Structures are given as structure tokens and as C-alpha cells.
TrEMBL record:
The chain crosses the membrane at residues 6-26, 47-73. Pathway: Hormone biosynthesis; Steroid hormone biosynthesis; dafachronic acid biosynthesis. This is cholesterol 7-desaturase. Pfam families: KshA_C, Rieske.
Amino acid sequence: MESSNLSSLVKVLAVIGISLAAGLVLDVRDPSDTLLGGGYPELWRRAGLAGAPARAAACILAGVSLLALGWLYRLLFAPLELLRTPDEVGYITEDGRSRAQAANEVRRRRKTGELPPVYPNGWYRVLDSHMLERGDVKSVTILGEQVAVFRGQDGTAYVVDAYCPHLGANLAVGGRVVGGCIECPFHGWQFRGEDGKCVRIPYAEKVPEFAKVRCWPSCERNGLVLVWFHCDGAEPSWTIPDQEEISRGEWVYRGRTEHFINAHIEEIPENAADIAHLAHLHTPGIVSGVDLRYTNSKTWEFVRHDWKVEWKPEPEPNKHCSQMLVKHALTVFGRHWPLLDVDVVARQVGPGVVFLHFDHSFLGRGVIMHCVTPVEPLLQCVSHTIFYQSGIPPLVPKFILRAECIQFERDVMIWNNKKYISKPMLVKEDSAIQKHRRWFSQFYSENSPRLRFQHDTLDF
């Protein structure tokens, strides 16, 4: 509510500013008319150009002021929206190649290794709730399938297979919401969101009992729309916990980031147990950027991050959960800044959702929901959505999210170029990695889908 009122106030001020600028432009007088004896030449006056330079200057000043106001509003109040394309992060572009060319070359030549099943059983984010208004229909690719996500007029979100069983039209492309149903754009068949059953065919006297579209088990928690996947069609065996501060409106949405990772899904959460990589990859300050060729530059070594991490699985009845306890400290010019020490509890729930809880006496409290959703066997959509205390200035959670994004993109460069090794060469200090793999294996079943074709040699 507070954010909405502030946004309305800024819009009102912008309208007033535009009105004043327009009045100034229409009534502005050039100083030369009064300060100079002769003013403008008679030819200028006859052509209506008297005062034109002043009006142009006023227009430029008004435009710059509005741009500055908009930039200031986005910086201080608007949520951070940072959405990366699949080719944008994690690849090295050289010799005049575009990002897309570099990414395609890496994907074509990289060895994949002996992979686990590609789609673990569990809950996965489809999209954020605020992206789906009443009556909206969205087309989403998830777990190698096309689905239609729509919100009924009663506010409930539904997820169904995208293709109409009649003649294969895509329900998410031109389909519309009618009550709690989605209507096919091709022939007007209407499918109920709660069970996928067809309830109306405009030109038929009777709707066949077998006319239905697959309905995915779904839920809406913490500002996310999620679906359940199980290779054998089993019902959900656990749920995503509700973050009460979000439900009560105490923590509000402050932004999200989105990345696409070319790797197996298991490699992303495995980082939580790879304690050694933190000291090597994430110690350089965020000011040194994300390109691993330059993060260790001496120019930026005056800023360092120090990490202490512990990973452990949870016992029954929460064996599908694990925790990473992180203690972060910042040193600048060798001096420790205790005010910026942050303790983070990262709780993973199943293969696709992680809650990163922040609790700081000065910076406040909040959560980043880190969600990994398989798009294709070796393409993961990773989102970070942040909710934070409403009383904390938005600039604080936006900075936290931006810092998390920088550190995360360093990992992206590793994931996008690495090979999965099923039997890694580990030392004693890497023992948590094997523990994590044993823990993660519970999300695979005998029939879990595997990548059918693997290229372990150069593809010419």
C-alpha cells in the first residue's frame, strides 16, 4: 500500500511538471527581446521565429528534468527488473563474434559427460504471480513441454498443456479466459482450469466425456505460481512452505532477476555444498565484475568478501530439504566493516526452490527466492525474486539483489562452459559434494527422463 501511494504521488508530480513545462514553453520570452535594444531582426519576427531559441532551450530543460525524475524514481522506488537473455551472460566473445555465435559454438563443442536424469521430481516455478493478472494467458516452456498458464476470473491460477486435443491449436496464443476456463482460439472449445475437462463446444450438441486437456498440479505461494512434476504422475508428496511475512504484506516485492543456464539442473544447487569454490570465485569484490578473466585484477583487490559456509541435509519429515548457513564479511583496504556483516540461511526445498533469508540489525529482514526451472534437458531458467520489509528503503533490497546477481553471474560463466563429471576427483575437504549428490538423488525415479543423445566428442 505504501509503495502504491508513493507511486501515485510521483505520477501526480510528473503530470504537474509536464503542465508547468508546457506552460513555460508556450509563454517563454527570449531575454534578447528585453535586454537588447533591437531584439530580433524583422524577418525573424515576420516568420514567427522570435523567441524560438528560448523555447528550444526550455523544451530541452523540461525533457532533461523529466528524464532525471524518471531515472531517480526507478533508482529509489521502482522494483529492480534484470532479465538476461540466454546468450547474454557466461560466454567469452572474441575475434568479432557476436554473443549468440560464441554461445552456439560452446554448446556445439562442449562435452556433456555422463548425466543424471534431466528432470527431477518436484515443484518448479512457472512465473511470478504479479506477471499474471485476472484474465491473462501466458505461454511458458517448462520441462520440455509447452503449457498455457492463465488466471481465472475468480483469481485462481491454472496450468494446462498448451495444445488443444481437438486439432492442436496453442491455447496460449490467442486463447482467452472465460470464467475459470480457457477458450481455444481455433474453434472455441472451452477447458476447465481445475481439471482440464472440456465444458463447451460451441457447435456441438454434446461434449464427449473424453474431451479434456492435461491439467498440471499447481499452487500459488509467496508470489510465485508453481507446478508439480513427477515422471510417474504421482501426487505431490510435500508442499512449498508459506512465507508468512509475504502473505501478511509485511514484506513487499522489490524486484527479480532472470538468467538462462546451459547446464544440468543438479549442478546449480550443488554449489551450496561446494564450499571451496566460494573462497576462490567469490572472494573478489563485486566491483571487479563478472568476467572471470578480470575478477582477480589488482585494481579491485582492495575490496574482498570473506565467507564461512556449512551445508547439511534436514532429517525426516523434511528430508526433501537442506540448509546452507552463510556468514559473510566485507573487508575494504584490509579493514573489516562489521556493519556490513550478513548472515544468510539458504533453505532448499526440493530440486527447484531455495529460500535465502536475510536478517540484519541495520539492513533489515527479507528473502530472495532462488528458483531453478528446467526449460529443456540442458537449459535452466533461474530467477531470483526478492521480498523485503516494507519500511526499509527500496534501495537496500535492490542493492542486495544486484550484488547477488553479480556473484551469481560468475557461476554462470563456469556452468555454461563446464562438463558434468559423474565421478569427480575429490579431496577430503570436498566431502559435502558427495553428500549433496546422495541427497539430491531422492528426486530421481526409475523412469525419470534422461537425455537421449549425448555428444562426448567434437561435433563436426
